[in-house]
Design brief:
single chain, Rossmann fold, alpha/beta, site-specific DNA-methyltransferase (adenine-specific) activity, 875 residues, 19 strands, two-stranded antiparallel sheet, 37 helices, nine-stranded mixed β-sheet, Ferritin, globular
Length: 875
């Protein structure tokens, strides 16, 4: 099960379990217990490194702890607190709850005791990281039920659910973090407007982080800050680590809401951010300035290399005594709309070389009053670098149009005295009732941001002079014209038929790629075009230039396949750098597509990215294993851990029709091995399965024929209510039925005898198929662990590379099909002359008049019909 599948399963079960509890409240319980499991397992892992194994009883555990340090148990507990910041007693460990739970136990009391004990154990220097972090969980336990039994049952259900998430390796921590963030996003999506409005969708966070991280490329020590803290810091941190895994990052986070503040701290800690690099504060960002650092015996305002933020929209704030606050020297945002106040605060805490990416409602671009004054100052001091318009309906709980604004304290020569506008509002995919940026959309936007060049209908660099001329109105439509892709009608062609020149000119990329194709398809009479042959697909497919193009592209794909295999599968997968390989593959795809300008690189990128998700998950599994030979991980079979699979999956495990269910395969699914090693047996199975389908079709025909007979014979053998044959009764009467069938081949008795015969054949085939499948599964399991390195490589090619090459290969096919489709559409649109249509109308009117003349009826009706004939006659 991939981390994505596990996350979806955990969410589905959690959502079912919460019953009538609000999603936003239930979130506190799920995420709180999830974090507590993380801390417990982290401590188990810490003591395991000291040779203390957890799965002992309490007495043995304490003895082992004492033996782990010559100075005794108190000493090692102190070391644990010093290194981790806390200590959890044996009886309070998450794994102890799971191991020792008995129905009837008062878990709510145990949990309260454990959380209080944890709070007391926190070492002073770690209080900023851990103090009150379980406040919401502790306060909410009583809401889980009216009685101790109800509360305990609810807690057990949550703990048992969370226990499905494995934490036994670095890979599993990646899974835990992913599940945690996935749950946050899903709770936000289901929490309604009030609770879900300010959650930043991961794709928006990703775009902001890509922009910020690439700006900071090359820095070895980086500080990042989010004054309205959520998931943005985590995403930016990951992006920085992708670019340079050795970069050292300090995280600064502030949030006024306790719950969100606690979630931020949990999220940072679970993403392996050590307490010494985490500076978090629960406070009102606008009311009290923060962060500060203590230097030269005094506190100074802390500036960071990057600030990322998604502040609340239309939040009222207190502007009293803020006129002299240096953060707001460019102006005070309106009392009822604090977005620009958050922006100015963020800009104030930015290093001169730094970058700020902030999500804002689009109203800040054009509203007047003090917001206009702030925009004027930001422009005159050259801080606004770019404005990116996002698709509508992209945030949970609100449909407000939003933008990302990018700001800098100092710009490069190319960036000075201008603002880059990007309209990305049309680039998204639908997911449920929300719009969502795809990976290719993020890359398209970042490429435009990086290139800083005009792209019709998408991006434009606008000078400060033009912005001043527009009175500092920064609304994107003022600077980027919408590209009109509407279906306009040409007057001449609508009257005389034929395809207009301008419609054919829009397909110029095709004509330049295939110089002879245009003449092969079209006649030009000087005024417009006519199709030479209405079988457009045939003309295109027979064109020699098209054939060569497709042939050359297939050869390029084969070279791409070879490159992918050599650069990935033929290397040591244990030490491969995921980010570098990802970038190398993209560069290679881009270099290949440069020779085929018809193809859209961003479409190819999306296809690649879809497949890369699978490859990346597998590579993380391989890299996190202890095997020196990466192919040993691929050959490995593990029995399912019953504590980490769902009840639905448990039922599959005991099924008598499969042996696969008791095993999990880390990388290669069983069916790949079966196809490689036992293809002949698979084909034999397919032949028998096809025979069964043919028999079922014939049985359906026979059933319909029998059902059509009306006789006592049929009533004895046909169950009308169930619409099926009674084969038991047919067997009893087979001898008599066979006699009639032999003498009367067309009789219903003959149909019944045939039905019984082929049903018997079907039963025998199904039995043989079941036995063959079970044997094939056993053979596959035996072959799995005996795979050679070369066979493992072949299987990786089948799983990783073949789907990617197949997906990219379809780009040319779709492109050429689109050409044929467009020409057919244009031909159909303009195929009729207006004069021909006029003749058709007259003919239809005359036919209608003739039909009216044949009608008879009451006088009033006939008078009405005569008037209708006059109207039609005039026309």
């Amino acid at each position: 099960m991939t981390k994505q599948e596990l996350a979806r399963e955990i969410w589905a079960m959690a959502n079912e379990m919460r019953g009538n509890i609000e999603a936003n409240d239930y979130k506190d319980y799920i995420l709180g217990f999830l974090f507590y499991k993380y801390l417990s397992d982290k401590q188990d892992e810490y003591f395991a490194s000291k040779n203390v194994v957890k799965d002992e009883d309490k007495k043995q555990y304490l003895v082992a702890l004492a033996e782990a340090d010559k100075k005794g148990i108190a000493s090692i507990i102190h070391k644990c607190k010093k290194d981790l910041g806390y200590y959890i007693a044996y009886e309070n460990l998450f794994s102890t709850w799971i191991k020792n739970y008995n129905p009837g136990d008062d878990l709510s009391d145990k949990v309260s005791t454990a959380l209080n004990s944890f709070e007391r154990s926190i070492l002073e220097k770690y209080e900023e990281s851990f103090k009150d972090i379980f406040k919401d969980l502790q306060a909410g336990i009583q809401k889980l039920g009216n009685t101790a039994y109800e509360r305990s049952e609810a807690i057990w259900n949550i703990c048992n659910l969370i226990n499905k998430i494995p934490i036994t390796s670095k890979q599993d921590y990646d899974i835990l973090g992913f599940v945690y963030e996935y749950l946050i996003s899903m709770f936000a999506a289901n929490a309604g407007k009030k609770a879900g409005e300010f959650y930043t969708p991961h794709e928006v966070s990703q775009l902001m982080s890509v922009i910020a991280a690439n700006h900071l490329k090359g820095l070895k020590n980086v500080s990042i800050y989010d004054p309205t803290s959520g998931s943005l810091l985590i995403t930016l941190g990951r992006e920085l680590k992708k670019i340079d895994k050795n970069v050292k990052i300090q995280y600064y986070a502030q949030e006024v809401i306790d719950t969100t503040y606690n979630i931020t701290r949990m999220n940072l800690l679970m993403n392996d951010v050590h307490s010494v690099n985490m500076f978090a504060k629960c406070g009102d960002t606008l009311k009290e300035d923060w962060p500060f650092v203590y230097e030269e015996q005094k506190y100074k305002s802390k500036r960071t290399d990057a600030v990322v933020s998604n502040p609340p929209y239309s939040l009222a704030w207190n502007t009293e005594n803020k006129e002299n606050d240096p953060r707001f020297r460019y102006g005070l945002a309106p009392k009822s709309k604090s977005e620009l106040a958050f922006l100015l605060h963020s800009l104030y805490h930015l290093e001169d070389h730094g970058i700020l990416t902030i999500v804002l409602p689009h109203g800040v671009l054009f509203r007047g009053g003090s917001e206009l004054q702030i925009r004027q100052n930001l422009i005159s001091h050259d801080h606004i670098d770019a404005i990116i318009g996002l698709p509508s309906n992209i945030f949970f709980g609100t449909g407000i149009p939003t933008i990302i604004m990018v700001l800098k304290r100092s710009k490069t020569k190319k960036e000075k005295n201008n603002v880059l506008f990007i309209d990305a509002s049309k680039y998204f995919t639908k997911e449920g009732n929300k719009n969502k940026l795809q990976s290719s959309d993020i890359v398209r936007i970042y490429d435009a941001f990086s290139a800083r060049e005009d792209i019709p209908g998408f991006a434009r660099v606008v000078s400060h002079e033009e912005i001043k001329a527009n009175e500092y109105n920064l609304n994107i439509p003022k600077y980027i014209d919408l590209v009109d892709n509407g279906d306009n009608h040409n007057l001449y062609s609508s009257i005389f038929s034929g395809i207009p020149h301008n419609d054919i000119d829009k397909l110029s990329d095709f004509w330049s790629t295939f110089p002879t194709l245009k003449k092969a398809l079209l006649n030009d009479n000087g005024k417009n075009y006519q199709l030479k042959d209405h079988d457009v697909e045939k003309v295109i497919s027979n064109n020699e230039e098209v054939k060569k193009y497709l042939s050359d592209f297939n050869k390029s794909l084969e070279s791409l396949r070879t490159y992918f295999k050599k650069s990935l599968i033929d290397t040591d997968l244990n030490v491969i750098d995921l980010y570098n390989v990802y970038q190398q593959f993209l560069d290679k795809i881009q270099s290949v597509l440069k020779s085929y300008k018809l193809l859209d690189y961003y479409q190819a990128f999306q296809l690649f990215d879809n497949e890369w998700t699978i490859i990346e998950n597998d590579l993380k599994v391989i890299k996190s294993a202890d095997n020196k030979n990466s192919f040993d991980t691929i050959r490995e079979l593990k029995e399912h851990d019953s504590s980490t699979i769902s009840a639905k999956a448990d039922k599959k495990l005991v099924s008598k029709n499969t042996t696969y269910g008791i095993y999990q395969t880390p990388v290669i699914p069983f069916e790949f091995v079966t196809k490689l090693k036992f293809n002949n047996q698979l084909e034999a199975l397919e032949i028998n399965s096809n025979k069964v389908e043919e028999i079922n079709a014939r049985l359906e025909e026979l059933l319909n024929e029998v059902a059509g007979y009306e006789s006592d014979v049929v009533n004895n053998f046909y169950k009308k209510e169930e619409n099926k044959l009674n084969f038991d009764e047919i067997k009893k009467q087979l001898k008599n039925l066979s006699v009639v069938a032999k003498s009367q081949p067309e009789s219903v008795e003959a149909l019944l005898v045939e039905a019984l015969s082929i049903d018997k054949e079907k039963r025998a085939l199904n039995s043989a198929i079941r036995k063959a499948k079970l044997q094939l599964e056993k053979d596959t399991i035996q072959a799995y662990s005996k795979l050679t390195d070369e066979e493992a490589k072949t299987l990786l090619c089948l799983k990783w590379i073949d789907p990617l090459i197949t997906a990219i290969s379809k780009l040319t096919k779709y492109k050429i099909e689109n050409l044929a489709s467009e020409l057919n559409r244009l031909d159909k649109k303009y195929i009729d002359k207006l004069s021909d249509l006029e003749v058709q109308i007259i003919q239809t009117q005359n036919s209608l008049i003739e039909l009216i003349n044949q009608l008879e009826g009451p006088d009033l009706d006939m008078e009405g019909l005569n008037e209708l004939k006059k109207i039609l006659g005039k026309k």
